[in-house]
Design a protein that fits this description.
With about 260 residues, the protein is an alpha/beta fold. The protein has helices at about 45-55, 75-80, 95-105, 115-125, 140-150, 170-185, 195-205, 220-230, 235-245, 245-255, and strands at about 5-15, 20-30, 35-40, 60-65, 70, 80-85, 160, 190-195, 205-210, 215-220. The chain has 2 domains: about 5-80 and about 155-255, Rossmann fold (3-Layer(aba) Sandwich); about 90-155. It contains 10 helices and 10 strands. The strands form 2 sheets. The chain has a 6-stranded mixed beta sheet, sandwiched between helices. The chain has a 4-stranded antiparallel beta sheet with strand order 2-1-4-5. Strand 9 (about 205-210) and strand 10 form a beta hairpin. Helix 3 crosses helix 4 (about 115-125), helix 3 (about 95-105) packs parallel to helix 5 and helix 8 crosses helix 9 (about 235-245). It is globular, with a radius of gyration of 19 Å. About 40% of the residues are buried.
Length: about 260
């Protein structure tokens, strides 16, 4: 892995909703050429964290820098460098797939080569035959793919994906994994939120584990093994359960599986 300078730096991120603290002081960075997994149980604060990192939510405290741009103080310049796919695709269902991807390119200021870029992405993700159909008639997996096309159309430096494999068949999930690795190889920075530990273990260079709004551990798989005092043969899933306090559930499941 060859990484470059920091593309995203989050410092002291806090988000409160009334008296409830969803994120309670998060620090992490993502470098060019790196895939960082953001993992955590339901309600850990993953989506809130990435929403602050993409400028969709304003932090109560803390800051997010995308290269040299503060996403709160200079949102337009920062957001031009970001591509985001949420856990539920935000699509305009009255547009065709082709119209939607081109529309998103226009929003990001892509002018030269937009048509060719749109067709290239639609073909790559297997949507060429459905490109003139309304997005409202797409399956969930197809909506996820057209969202990926829209994320990539302006060739962003930072890619943020929240549960991107939901609704994708095994072929689509494999294509996504290969795509993210290829983009990292071209110097793009990737944040990947996922519940699927096998995907995180196979493609992430580093992982940050969130629990109750705080990062409880981050680093490479070997770093996490040390933090969790885990054996060398334990998987990311085993380590995750140790660090989030759910190891008892793992032991019960293993006991029930015994003959």
């Amino acid at each position: 892995m060859h990484t470059g300078p920091d593309v995203l730096v989050a410092r002291g991120l806090v988000k409160r909703f009334g008296d409830f603290t969803a994120v309670g002081g998060v620090d992490f960075q993502v470098r060019a050429g790196e895939i960082v997994g953001l993992l955590g149980p339901n309600g850990a604060g993953k989506t809130t964290t990435v929403s602050m990192c993409t400028g969709l939510l304003r932090p109560t405290e803390g800051s997010v820098l995308v290269t040299d741009f503060d996403i709160t103080q200079n949102p337009r310049s920062a957001k031009r460098l970001v591509g985001y796919v949420p856990d539920e695709p935000y699509v305009y269902e009255k547009l065709t797939g082709r119209e939607f991807v081109r529309f998103m390119g226009e929003i990001y200021g892509v002018r030269k080569g937009l048509g060719d870029r749109s067709e290239e992405l639609l073909t790559y993700f297997g949507l060429a035959d459905a490109a003139d159909s309304l997005v409202g008639g797409y399956s969930h997996g197809m909506k996820q793919k057209v969202g990926l096309c829209a994320m990539l159309v302006h060739d962003p430096l930072l890619l943020v994906l929240d549960e991107p494999t939901v609704g994708l068949d095994p072929k689509g999930a494999r294509l996504l994994k290969n795509t993210l690795q290829a983009l990292a190889g071209r110097g793009r920075a990737v944040i990947l939120c996922t519940h699927i530990m096998e995907i995180a273990q196979s493609i992430c260079d580093r992982v940050a584990i969130l629990d109750a709004g705080k990062i409880v551990a981050q680093g490479s798989l070997e770093d996490l093994r040390i933090s969790a005092q885990a054996d060398s043969n334990e998987s990311l899933e085993d380590i995750f359960l140790r660090l989030t306090g759910d190891v008892e559930d793992l032991e019960v499941a293993r006991a029930l599986a015994l003959p």
